[in-house]
Write a structure and sequence with these properties.
This is Radical SAM core domain-containing protein. This protein is an alpha/beta fold and about 450 residues long. The strands form five sheets. Strands 11, 14, 15, 16, 17, 18 and 19 form a seven-stranded parallel sheet that branches. Strand 16, helix 11 and strand 17 form a beta-alpha-beta unit. The C terminus is likely disordered. The structure holds iron/sulfur cluster. The site of iron/sulfur cluster (SF4) has 10 residues, from loops.
Length: about 450
């Protein structure tokens, strides 16, 4: 089954358990990530007379506090999957361990339905392990798998053991995400729009959200009030792909209202902001109304890479945006700038030039390692270099795809690029040594 809208529309009087699985990966960091789609669906279902519960393996596996409400998350070393066995790095389960997850489930009422969400395609190991545990604790209860992995890899997801897989966007009237199901969450998450008006060659936004839509402003403010009115939450992360598109009519009035109703709230944009939209007025608005951390979507100073990124910014626009942000009072350290690395056809020298360009103009470069996303033009080019990608999502892991598996750059080259970017963040200026490339294949 793929189109589950009617199934959910008709569901009533049921006990529904939503589950966010653990993550199996080399690295994981809490960038204000919450399973927003699952939370919208749980709220929808409870409004239709169902009782809903949430078991979030990442949140429940938190071990300590980080800045701006984020948490460190428990990690347990696990054996690497066979496909990644040759990678000389440790592999972990992030979030609740299996025994603690089992105990958490046993404290929940026996559900009539279980909804499991998923994120990165190469995190499916955590999803499969989670469904396995659910089967043991709640035998016979139907499991429905949704989320990004299920949408992008529907055939592979059939191996998960789920009874139903949601492979199409849900056509339901969502209003507010059920963030109140969390106890002790120290930050809020907010979407003011869904989808993105651009079409970058390496991004799946258009596949996951075919249309770009603005959310009802009243609902956005109600959503924020629900999360912020208790007084314990001081940080709010925006989930929009294109937060500043059409900003004068949608985002500015919302930001002003949020700042007036919830003074002292610190705002964050973990998804990159579109540089072209940032002028003096915009920078001043962001600063005055409480933005604390920014991520700028620059991605590359290479014209060919800029074309593949929808030509959404130019070198000149980036320099102008930095000047506006500095003038408004943001420090260099706050101006984190995404630089893409490892895209098929992108040279190491091109990444190096982009980093140097950002550093020269006072920005704070942050390398974003490319991961091939099924269904995108970049995935097709990536699969030409590494044909196994089409059948095995583990090979698209961003930590190892370009440096270890595809041979786009060697691990020392990637490290040198990171050092180049990081050196400036730490106030050092050192010339990196780019090691001779030695292709590495498992
Ligand atoms: S602008 Fe960002 S979200 Fe939109 S298509 Fe490009 S990479 Fe994806």
């Amino acid at each position: 089954m793929s189109e589950l809208s009617s199934f959910f529309r008709e569901m009533t009087g049921a006990v529904v358990l939503g589950v966010n699985p653990p993550v199996h990966d080399f690295t994981f960091f809490d960038l204000w990530a919450k399973p927003l789609g699952l939370l919208f669906l749980l709220d929808y279902l409870r409004k239709r007379g169902n009782r809903v519960f949430l078991a979030d393996c990442i949140f429940e596996g938190r071990t300590g506090d980080l800045s701006f409400g984020r948490n460190t998350v428990r990690k347990t070393e696990i054996p690497k999957p066979a496909w990644l066995a040759a990678i000389p790095r440790r592999y972990h389960r992030f979030g609740l361990g299996e025994e603690d997850f089992r105990r958490l489930l046993e404290s929940c009422p026996v559900p009539d339905y279980i909804l499991v969400t998923s994120m990165m395609t190469y995190w499916y190991g955590g999803v499969f392990s989670c469904i396995d545990t659910l089967r043991q604790v709640f035998p016979g209860v139907p499991v429905i798998l949704g989320g990004v992995y299920a949408r992008l890899c529907p055939d592979h997801a059939k191996r998960s053991g789920a009874d139903m897989i949601q492979t199409e966007p849900l056509d339901l009237e969502f209003s507010l995400p059920a963030t109140d199901l969390y106890r002790g969450l120290r930050y809020g998450v907010l979407a003011t729009t869904f989808g993105c008006p651009f079409r970058c060659e390496y991004c799946a936004s258009r596949l996951l959200e075919p249309s770009y839509r603005r959310r009802n402003p009243g609902l956005v403010l109600e959503d924020a009030a629900r999360q912020l009115s208790g007084g314990e939450v001081r940080d709010l992360a925006f989930y929009d792909d294109a937060l500043l598109a059409g900003k004068e009519r949608h985002f500015y009035p919302l930001l002003e209202a949020l700042n007036e109703r919830h003074p002292g709230t610190r705002f964050h944009s973990p998804n990159g902001l579109h540089v072209r939209e940032i002028d003096d007025e915009c920078a001043e608005m962001l600063k005055k109304r409480g933005f604390e951390t920014l991520r700028l979507s620059f991605e590359s100073s290479d014209p060919e890479m800029q074309r593949r990124g929808s030509d959404k910014t130019s070198d000149e626009e980036y320099v102008a945006a930095l000047a506006s942000l500095r003038k408004a009072g943001f420090s260099g350290g706050q101006l984190e700038t995404y630089i893409l690395a490892g895209v098929p056809g992108q040279s190491v020298e091109s990444v190096e030039r982009s980093i140097r360009f950002v550093l020269e103009h006072g920005g704070n470069p942050k390398i974003a390692e490319f991961s091939p996303v099924p269904g995108t033009p970049s995935f097709r080019r990536a699969a030409e270099l590494l044909p196994g990608l089409t059948d095995e999502p583990l090979l698209s892991n961003k930590t190892v795809y370009s440096s270890y598996l595809a041979g786009n750059m060697s691990p020392p080259e990637l490290q040198a690029l990171k050092d180049l970017a990081k050196g400036q963040r730490e106030g050092r200026s050192k010339k990196p040594k780019f090691a001779k490339r030695t292709a590495y294949y498992p």
